[in-house]
Write a structure and sequence with these properties.
hydrolase activity, 430 residues, manganese, Alpha-Beta Plaits, Amidohydrolase, single chain, 30% helix, alpha+beta, 9 helices, Aminopeptidase
């Protein structure tokens, strides 16, 4: 998961979200079989996760990780392709009959970190740790593959397991595509997930944006006589786009977990917002003039699309109108954009099987400048990116990604294999 370097807030997502113990829907025998098989292989998946955790590899160096993945998939009997976009791996599981084609993506790289590990199976690679949960993502994806192989004789269609390198440095997805990923596979739908500080046992999603759209705004002016005044005007013009009151509960990031006003609440205050990074403005010489830049986060396309017209109007009504050249928004991170139809259908299907209290619909957008380069796949294939809970508050386990104390309740591996195996089965046979 990508994160803006300047944002170091620790966010305890959904602290107040409660989980009820629910009887799982066993009316569909195949989902019962999925749960039974997941139980059987759970300990082996934990062992895989811990092995990956002890030998983490940063983006571009995932040789051992890739080899382990390829060997596991080969042993399952999948067609396996390696060396895609670096150390990317693709496993192909074909059912007994032709049918729909669905892809599941898992990222596999670790991160630089000098903080000591907090688990009993610490990293043996000094300065590198899995503090974003990609070891868990890999174990879940391998578990899904293992589980669905058991259902091969009843499968109609093809499942692609895409193990992507170099997510943290925003290179892996594009590198895989440059290496012909979508010539190699032709999915009609694509899915992915990321561990978050949700309680273990839950997953969540929403249509369109999952994270705020973090953009750089550049305003270009001809050189004027009073550069200081121009800079102050441009800065204030950008700041005026913010539509969240300074007194709002929005700014207390722990409120993102509030069951009413948080991002899972029906009365979420984390929607329809534009915010400005107040400590990140600059002015530089550019194109025989000056470029004044700031950084803005948008909760949705409507907010984003209104920004440039609003700035142009303010400038047109100012004393600097004649010096103005152009304004543009520049991508900082790729923006996730979940397919609305697939989100709605997926959440409904999983709720029917596992219960609404485990399958959450988000109403707000995470407001802390994160993203994921899975977004680069989304324009190519209709897709959904899920959050999966990894925290256990009673045990003091908080799955806050990119934090020194990152840890997961490993029961979430079972959740991921169960729910997402069932999802793929449902999507193959809508």
């Amino acid at each position: 998961m990508l994160k803006t370097p300047s944002n170091t807030l620790t966010i305890f997502f959904f602290l107040l979200v409660t989980i009820s113990t629910l009887g799982q829907n066993t009316t569909k025998n195949i989902h019962t079989e999925i749960q039974q098989h997941t139980e059987q292989i759970f300990d082996s998946l934990v062992k895989i996760r811990r092995d990956l955790h002890m030998y983490p590899e940063v983006g571009g160096e995932e040789k051992r990780t890739s080899t382990k993945i390829a060997a596991y998939l080969t042993e399952l009997g999948l067609e396996v392709k390696t060396g895609i976009g670096g150390y990317g791996v693709v496993g192909i599981l074909k059912g007994v009959k032709p049918g729909k084609k669905i892809a599941w993506r898992a990222d596999i790289d670790a991160m630089p970190s000098k903080a000591p590990d907090v688990v009993d199976f610490p990293s043996k690679h000094e300065g590198v740790r899995h503090i974003c949960g990609h070891d868990v993502h890999t174990a879940v994806a391998l578990g899904i593959a293992n589980t669905l192989v058991q259902q091969k004789e009843d499968l109609e269609g093809t499942i692609y397991f895409v193990f992507q390198p170099s997510e943290e440095n925003i290179k892996g997805a594009l590198a895989m595509m440059d290496d012909g990923l979508f010539d190699m596979i032709q999915p009609e739908e694509m899915y992915a997930m990321h561990v978050t500080p949700f309680p273990a046992g839950t997953i969540a999603a929403k249509p369109e944006e999952m994270f705020s759209d973090y953009k750089k705004v550049d305003l270009f002016f001809k050189k004027g006589n009073n550069k200081d005044a121009l800079y102050e005007f441009a800065k204030q013009a950008i700041l005026s786009l913010e539509n969240v009151s300074p007194e709002s509960k929005f700014w207390n990031m722990q409120n993102m977990g509030d069951p009413e006003i948080g991002i899972a609440g029906t009365k979420s205050i984390y929607k329809n917002y534009t915010t400005v990074d107040k400590n990140n403005f600059s002015i530089k010489e550019a194109n025989n003039g000056v470029k004044i830049s700031g950084f803005i986060s948008f909760s949705d396309k409507k907010q984003r699309d209104a920004a440039i017209p609003s700035l142009k109007k303010k400038i047109a009504d100012s004393e600097f109108a004649e010096d103005f050249s152009t304004a543009e928004l520049v991508n900082v991170f790729p923006t996730l954009d979940n397919n609305e139809r697939l989100v709605n259908e997926s959440l409904e299907q999983l709720s029917d099987i596992y219960g609404e209290n485990r399958v959450l619909r988000l109403h707000g957008v995470v407001a802390d400048g994160r993203s994921d380069d899975f977004a680069f796949f989304q324009p190519k294939v209709p897709s959904v990116y899920f959050f999966m809970g990894g925290s256990n508050y009673e045990k003091g386990i908080i799955a806050q990604t990119h934090s020194p104390n990152f840890a997961v309740d490993e029961s979430c591996i079972k959740t991921g294999v169960n729910l997402f195996s069932s999802l793929i089965i449902e999507r193959l046979n809508p």
